[in-house]
Each structure stands twice: as C-alpha cells, then as structure tokens.
Amino acid sequence: MARFPKKTDDIEINEVDDGYVVYHRDRDRVHYLNHTAALVLEFCTGENDAETMPELLKQAYEMESAPVDEVQECLTKLYDEGLVS
Amino acid sequence: MARRIDYIVPGATQPGTATTTHRFEVTPRDIGYRIAENGGHLGDEPDAERVLDRLYARVHDLASDQFADRVLIHAGTGVIGSRRFLAVGPKFAGKSTLMTRLLFAGAASEGDEMAILSDGAVTAFPRRFRIRERALPHLPELAPLLGDMPSVVDGEGRRIYGFDPGIAGFDWTIGIGTPDAIFFLEGNHGGDADMADCAKIDMCRLIMPQCLSHEVPGPQVLAQIAAMVGGARTYTIRGGSPGEVAAALIHRMDG
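Output (structure tokens, whole complex):
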C-alpha cells in the first residue's frame, strides 16, 4: 500500500447523509461506505501520509485518542477493493 | 372471458396522458380463441386461461418497453395525509397485503408491487393489487367482494385475486411525487412489529437488490437511488401482522 494513498479515478461517488455509495467502474462493484470510511477515502488525496490519518480522524470526530487500528483496517479494505492505490 | 381478462385491467386514474394505444380483441372460434392486436393476428389459444396468460405477457412486454429507461423498484406506493411513501421489499415480504390493509386504514394506497422512479419522483406501476388466499384473514373487508374479483390459480394451486380498490368504494388514483419516507419490509412475519430508523447508507444497500432497469446504466441507477433515499426519512420494519405494520407506518407518517 502506498504511503500517500490516492483515491482511484475510476470510481463514482454518491453522497448520502451518513456516507457514500461508491461505484467502481472497472470492477463493476458497489460499495457502501459509512461516514468514517467516507472520510478516510476523502483523506486519500495522494498528499496525506497514511500514518497521519488517524490523527486527522481524531480531530474530525474530537476523539480522545487516534483510531490507529481502525484507520489501518479501513485503508486496507479500501486498497483491497481498489478504491485507493 | 371478459371477467377473466379483468385480472390484468387496472381501473386506476393515472397521471399524464396515454402516448400510445393498443387494442386487443379476443374472438371465440370453434376450438379456442383468436387474439388480435391492433387488427393483426397475435395468436391462438385453446382456453380462457391461456388467453389471459398471453395477454398478460404481451401487456407486460409493452409496459416494460415504455419504462425501459426508468428504474423500477419492488415497492408499494401510497400517500398518507399529503406525504408520499414507499414500502420496499422482496417477493413475499407482504407488500400487497400491507398496501391493501393500509387502504382500509385510511391511506391512499396506489400500488402494491412496483414503483417507477424517474427524476426523483415515484409512481406506481398500474396493476390490480394481488391478494393471495392466505392473506384473506388479514383483510376481512374483502370477504363480501371476492365474488366480484377476477382471480387466477398459481402453479401450486393457490388462488390469487386481482383487487381493484374501486370496487370497495375507494377513489383509486395513481399520483407521482418524491417520497417523504421509505420503509423496507424485512418480512419475518409474526411477532410484534418492530420499526427502526435506518441509516441511508443501509437503505441504499437494501433497495439496490430490489431495483431493475433495462436501459439505465448501473451507476445511474445508483445515483438515482442515492438521491431518492437522501431526500426521505428511512426505516426498516420487521415482524408484525399486516394490521400492526400498517398502524406503525401510519403513526410514523403522521409524526
């Protein structure tokens, strides 16, 4: 997985109140991302270090501690599904 | 024959004006019947039941062609007060029974099986409500009307009635509009009705398998469903008798 993950260009994102419905054109698959996963996906601009994302999420949700494991798991899934590279 | 064919004739007042007309004529012959469409020979069938099957299939194909560029959703549609709702669910989830129960509970039920989505608005696919024999205990109001309702027998010998709300004194009018609320019926009949808020992401996930479209590309189906869901309140309903589910739905719509 890239250190600076980037959202794949080959996806179409439909936003709803509590997340994203994402269509991956090349794989012809639909993904339903909750708000947290949607936020992580948005962090993947190619300019954010993956290691800083837990802190970004902590700030976004005003959490007490950075959700390192959760973000890593989320990034792994996004990568496995081809939503980020 | 006319009564039997009534099974596929909806008596609803529908929005818009007809853009095309097809005239079907069924003529008895020495053996069986001849079916003509717009003066041309459509086919010959040996008995009334086969005539109905042929007409049903043909009318269904014609309608499908008209709606090929729309998204169809397995859902009942109706209005309570001034608010439009969808009751989405797979086959045998109880949509027809629920929509009929709602009718007698004061809702303006417009369709029981398929909703047509276009530019964010939904309208009911016009067809008589299909009432299965096993649903009749939940719809005692239909008992005195059964003799007037056309019916068919399915492949397993069970009777299905074609109910036109007009024969029960209702003004059956099919409207069109954006849904204010979407309810997903999770089946699991029995027990108490349990209604819960449903996250919009989850509602999208539930609705997508209940959609079909011949010509709308997948991404556009997704976008339309997401937009529709985004503008509505969303709930799941699990369990309960049709009466309990109807009461819960009306209570939620009134709130």
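Chain B touches chain A through 16 residues (CB under 8 Å).
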